[in-house]
Each structure stands twice: as structure tokens, then as C-alpha cells.
């Protein structure tokens, strides 16, 4: 006889999970394992990137799952054209520092979030790529509990 009472996660459910996100070289991006309690998320709220939510949907309470999201589906490929220089004079009221983030106006109402990656000779090099662009992300997920909507 098949047990049809097994709860499976679906969009709209609140879930308690433990998770770890790692790069291919083993470096940890973030994890819930540093805390004793699992974290609560609502599927469909985009707390994780969409491909991760797709992997969680259909998991049963107590299930553990490991998977890799390739760079192009995670935070995109690294695009060299999103790295460019600006004059230091463009930063009127602030002295830019490495890793500071800014919004750069591209067109009428289009902006790009950029990060300072270098400062030399009156020039500031900015990178508009996500910090994890070009990197595959490895996930370990444990679905601890499903709280129905």
C-alpha cells in the first residue's frame, strides 16, 4: 500500500530548511548550519534564485538533496563588457573605496548596480557583474518541515 499522506513542498508553502551554498572549490557562500534552528522561507517569494526553488518544489519533509546550479542559470555568466572605468571626478561628494557599491545611470530610467574593483591614477574601475557571476553554485538542502499555506 502506498502512503499518500506524504507532504510535498509546493509554491506558497512556508518551509523550514537547512541549506548550504558552496562554490566548486568548496568555499562556503552561506549556510543555515551555523545556527541550531532551520530557517523559514515561503516558496515563491524568491528568497532563493528560481532554479533553487524549482529543486525544492516536490521535496518531502525530511528529504535531503544535493544539486548544482550552473553559472548561466544562477547569477549569469561573467560579462567583460560590464567592467569599465570612470573618472574619479564622477564621485563628487564621496571618495570611492574598493568593494563599495553604486548605482550608475545608463539611460533615461535605466540603472546598473556596480562595485568598485580598482582605483588608479584618477580612474575608478567598476564591475556591473553580480559577485557570483560566472560561478556554478552547489547546494545541499534538507527540507525539515512543510507548513501548508
Care to describe what's here?
The protein is mainly beta and 149 residues long. The chain has two domains: 14-75 and 134-147, Chitinase A, domain 3, CATH 3.10.50; 80-127, Thrombin, subunit H, CATH 2.40.10. 7% of the residues lie in helices and 42% in strands. Strands 1, 2, 3, 4 and 9 form a five-stranded antiparallel β-sheet that branches. A four-stranded antiparallel β-sheet has the order 5-8-7-6, with no helix packed on it. The longest helix has 7 residues, at 50-56. The chain is elongated. The mean pLDDT is 92.
Just give the CATH class of the largest domain. Alpha Beta
Shape: elongated
- Work out the count of structural domains: 2
Q: What portion of the residues fall into strands of 2 or more residues?
A: 35-45%
Give a count of the beta strands, DSSP E runs of length 2 or more: 9
- Gyration radius (Cα, Å) is 20 Å
Indicate the structural class: mainly beta
Unreliable segments (pLDDT under 50, ≥5 consecutive)?
none
Question: Main sheet?
Answer: 5 strands, antiparallel
CATH domain topology of the largest domain: Chitinase A, domain 3
Mean pLDDT reading: 92
End-to-end Cα distance, whole Å, is 28 Å
Compressed to H and E, one letter per element, the order equals: EEEHEHEEEEE
CATH architecture of the largest domain: Roll
- The number of helices is 2
Helix fraction, binned, reads under 10%
Amino acid at each position: 500500500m502506498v502512503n499518500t499522506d506524504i507532504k510535498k513542498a509546493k509554491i506558497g508553502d512556508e518551509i523550514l530548511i537547512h541549506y548550504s551554498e558552496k562554490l566548486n572549490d568548496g568555499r562556503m557562500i552561506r549556510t543555515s548550519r551555523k545556527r541550531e534552528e532551520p530557517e523559514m522561507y515561503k516558496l515563491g517569494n524568491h528568497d532563493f534564485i528560481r532554479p533553487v526553488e524549482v529543486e525544492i518544489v516536490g521535496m518531502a519533509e525530511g528529504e535531503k538533496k544535493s544539486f548544482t546550479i550552473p553559472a548561466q542559470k544562477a547569477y549569469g555568466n561573467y560579462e567583460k563588457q560590464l567592467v569599465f572605468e570612470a573618472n574619479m571626478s564622477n564621485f563628487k561628494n564621496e571618495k570611492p573605496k574598493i568593494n563599495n557599491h553604486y548605482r550608475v545611470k545608463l539611460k533615461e530610467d535605466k540603472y546598473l548596480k556596480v562595485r568598485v574593483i580598482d582605483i588608479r591614477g584618477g580612474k575608478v574601475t567598476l564591475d556591473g557583474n553580480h559577485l557570483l557571476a560566472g560561478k556554478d553554485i552547489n547546494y545541499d538542502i534538507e527540507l525539515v518541515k512543510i507548513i501548508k499555506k
